[in-house]
Amino acid sequence: MTQTYPFTPAGLPELPPALAILRDNVFQHALKTGSFTLKSGRQSSWFLDTKQTMCRPDGMLAVANAALEILPKEAQAIGGLTMGADPVAYGIAAIAATRGSQLRSFSVRKEAKDHGITGRIAGALQPGDKVVITEDTVTRGTSIFEAVDAVRAFGADPVFITVIVDRGGTCADMAAAAGIEYRPLLTAPDLGYEFGS
C-alpha cells in the first residue's frame, strides 16, 4: 500500500497510472477474500464482483479512463452479453461521449426476444459496425464468445475484446484463434493471484 494507491498491497507488478488507479478501486470495492464456490463449481480463496467497481462513479471513471486509452479508433460500438457487459459498455460509451467520441452501446440478450424488436441485440448496434466486445470479469471466455457469435450473426464485426479483469487466462488464446485483438485492463497476476486460482 502507498499513499497514491492506499488499497493496493505492496509487491504487485507496477502498472501505468490509469490501470493502477483502476486496480486500487478493484481492491477497495470488488475483490473479496475467503472461501467461495465459483460458477464453474471450483473453490477459490478470492472472488471478484467487479460491478462493485463499475457501478460507482469513481470506478466507472477509472474503467473508462483505462479502456479509452486502448480501444481502437475505428470502433463504432461497444457491448456484450447482458448483465456483465452492460454497465461496462454503457459507462465507457457515456464517458467517451463527453470526450467527443460517438461510441454507441448495446447488449446481447441471453435469449432472442420474440416480440417487438426481435432478436438478441438490444441497443444502438448497426450492421457493419466495428465492435468492441466487453465484460466485467472473464474466467473461461464463454460469455465473451457467445457475444462475439451474436454480433457476427447480426452483421457487425468484432475487432477488439476488453474486460475489467481476466481471472482465468484462457481468453487470449480464444481471441487469437478468432482473429480478434484482446487486451484485458487487469489480470489475476496484476492482483497477486495466479490465473485460474
TrEMBL record:
EC number: 2.4.2.10
Pathway membership: Pyrimidine metabolism; UMP biosynthesis via de novo pathway; UMP from orotate: step 1/2
One Gene Ontology biological process: pyrimidine nucleobase biosynthetic process
GO MF annotation, one: orotate phosphoribosyltransferase activity
Alphabetical keyword list: Glycosyltransferase, Pyrimidine biosynthesis, Transferase
Enzyme class: transferase
Alphabetized InterPro entries for the sequence: OPRT (IPR023031), Or_phspho_trans_dom (IPR004467), PRTase-like (IPR029057), PRTase_dom (IPR000836)
Record keyword Transmembrane present: no
Name of the protein described by the UniProt record: orotate phosphoribosyltransferase
Organism in which the protein naturally occurs: freshwater metagenome
Lineage: unclassified sequences, metagenomes, ecological metagenomes
